[in-house]
Amino acid sequence: MLVLCGVPLAFMEMAVGQYTRQGPIGALSKLCPFFKGAGLATVVISFLFTTYYVVIITWSFYYMFHTFTSELPWTHCNHSWNSELCWDQKSAAKMAAVNNVTFVTTNLSASYYDVTYNRTSASENGSAQSTTGNVVLQPNGSRSPTEDFFIENVLQKSSGIEEQGSVRWELLLILLMCWVIVYFCIWKGPKSTGKVVYFTATFPYLVLVILLGRGITLPGSDDGIEFFIKPRWELLLDAKVWVNAAAQNFNSLGVAFGGLITMSSYSKYNNNIVRDVLILAVVDAVTCLLAGFAIFAILGNLALSQGKAVGDVVEEGPGLVFVIYPQAFNTMPVAQLFAFLFFFMLICLGIDSQFASVEVIVTTIQDHYGHHVRHYLRRKEVLVFVVCLVSFLAGLPNITQGGFYFFQLIDYYAAALSLMILAFFEVIAICWFYGAKNLADNITHMTGIRPNAFFIVCWYFVSPLLILGIWIFSLVQYKPLSIAGYTYPDWAVALGWIIALVSVACIPIGMFHGVMMSPGTSWGKKLVNSFNPILMPEHGQPIFTDKSPPIHSNGLGGSDIGLTQVVTPGFAEQPDQRGREERDCLQL
């Protein structure tokens, strides 16, 4: 997926952003006005992303704050907030005393205990599976202390999405703090963001190296690493695996979210984009491998301590980060330090992602709707504040007692299924209708380097067909969302599809608008003209050059120098509202 789809699409988006020097809507409007809706769809998906992804940062802050204690709060079940389902060593000892059971091994962190039975059965707070010799004892419906901490303390989770409950005030304050941090990091544009990214983008690598160094010294780490690198070919028949693989690649590279187009639009016109995409591909691959080895080395140790296979301790989604991994830290010396480093790393990674998503929204408003909001939001700082405030309010449903169910709903339908559709139409618009050859000419004109034939083949055939195949495969094997035995009601499933279609609906709306605003005396001529690029009579001729710089602007206010305006269908004679000083500051 990374080689055949992720990297070619990342290259495509970076080239489009640098060439057009516009955000997603402006870029698609200039290359193929008929598909301008695909650009708007990426902005919508970025907005949805900002509203729910920040919740992961919020949970990470909550966990990090709880590492400043003499004892991590998820190591036992003696807290007032623990439920009756919480199961730790003392619970096991109580059952052993009642049922004449003696321990063979003890493990403070596990909810599974290896025991020897002096009798054939035992029951209290559940039932026990028993055979002769050493067996695993697991009370029915029990929770580990880490799982109980996440459910009862962090989430205070309700019984379902039908029961939203009250707002978690601790999480509300942390959520507000997250948005304040994001705001003050990006309010001055890419220059201020870049200074923060120097730390937030590099510190996680230091943590991963520390975790890997510690993980490989633990017993059982080799089993975890083997589980990570050993292929399981039978899973290739599962559509969910392909969807998750595509979503992971798109998320890690930033494809189809509009971030790559937006950030590349700030690059100099002759920036070596070929070098940048190769660096991006290598760094992404190395990061995934480093994180995988670090995580699964520690999971291997956890599996060994519980007497289970590695595959039995691995969970999907938030459970791996906020239940399984904290449980693994309990077995380490100086657990507080490793837990702090891990959750602070997650915070840095999450904040980085928020920067890009918010910048996509702000750039879109500046480029195309600045004339509507100029009288109200003259300064960029005010615009960024409004975007952050709206995103903060839109994310409030995720921090109620039933918010976890809403979070999973958005993640399942908006971040996976709809993302495939957006990526497909984006590559069709750019590489089929504008033309992969034309894009290659533009790259050659900017950098002096002709893209390899491999990329052109991927743009034309491999990437779009692979995306379409995965999407169709996922629909054929579609199953409504369910979590740990909880089945979402029909109205919630319908809500999930509506959320997914909010972004997808932008595509046909943009098609109609693109045709309507194209020149022509009849609808047929308008339709034909809507597929033509705007003001690009010769391939390789840039929209903006260093001899004709974008307009200097004070936020969303007046200009400092003149500019030959580019007329985009639907956005009447809109000059580029971002200053040359910002555009020449490359944000990686």
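Above is the first protein from milestone M3; the second protein from the same milestone is given next.
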Amino acid sequence: MVKNGLKQHEWLQGLYQIRTSWIPVYNQETFFAGMNTTQRSESINSFFDSFVDSTTTLKQFVVRYEKALASRHEKERKEDFESRHKSRILRIGSKMEYHGALVYTKKVFTLFQDELVKSNPFIKEKISKNGSCYEYKVSSCFDSRDSFLVSMDLSSKVGTCKCNLFEFKGILCRHILAIFHLKNVVEIPSHFILKRWTKEANKGNVIFENTPSFEDDLEKSAAARCLHVCRLINQLSSFAEKSKEQYKVIVGDLDQIFKKVLTMEEDNISSEKPVDDLIHDAMESQQNQSNHIPLVNIGDPHISQTKGRKKSGHESQNNRFKKWS
């Protein structure tokens, strides 16, 4: 700004004062899932470009918006299925790589695997040691700019790197992985695994709504009630996986709930009228309605003289001759 004579520019001065809010270098220690300042708006715009344009009406927008969400949900379900059921291609064959393939989704594992592969050609130089706490300078053999300090507590396997990749993206950087390899750490520590990047991120997530609109949907829509119950059962299933005790409690209570609901269903069936009675009531109702309909006499329509068949040209010519004769 000083170099280009813009020091007194009011708008640029305002941007400079809030530079810590929008310049990435000031936010490397803040988790953004790897997104930059404009990526979110750009991704949303590109997503809707295939569904709406400048000529789309409001009615068309509502319909296409629902289609857009449905396509996104279908894509997420497909990716979840592939993450859970498709095997990964291991490039190194190490236990660390295998552990990452077990816990991470397909896309996140690709990013983690790339960092793991790049962690091999690094020089680890010990700077200091204090008990179980170490500080290393990790430098690339090929890029002098790729050199950062790593602080590591080997007893708890808690560490930080000055590159702040984990703080910014939630994925371990190559520098920490290089120290793990040096110290024979063969699995990713649990505190370095974000649930949002795991295969089970969407499993058991139930959002409890207390808004009036949500309650109205449950009262009016059978589909909303079914979806709500499915989400609750899905969350219970995730708890049942954790221990046998939780499994026994869940199964026991669900059995009681099933018996109670089955009794309610049988009571509803017994309270309903037989089919013959329903038919009889419908016929009586129809008969009562017919008795209140006034009788109207409808006579035959008036008979009018028709013009008859159209005369041919020969007949018309004969008539003209008779007239002149």
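Note on the second protein: Confidence is low (pLDDT under 50) at residues 206-213.
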